[in-house]
Amino acid sequence: MKTLLLMKEIYLEAFKAIENFFVRRFFKGFAWFSLILFLIVVYAFVYRILTGFPFD
Hints:
By secondary structure, this protein is mostly helical. It has helices spanning 2-16, 21-50. It has one domain. The termini are far apart.
């Protein structure tokens, strides 16, 4: 839980320094998009492991 709180603090501090509204929104959207893509990859990898996919 401590790690999640530290990541949240880093996330919030990173966007406080950005003044331009458009740039701030773009990077926030990009951060969420990247997180969603990462979670999809983790899901696919775990699914393949659980279904016995042969990694040759």
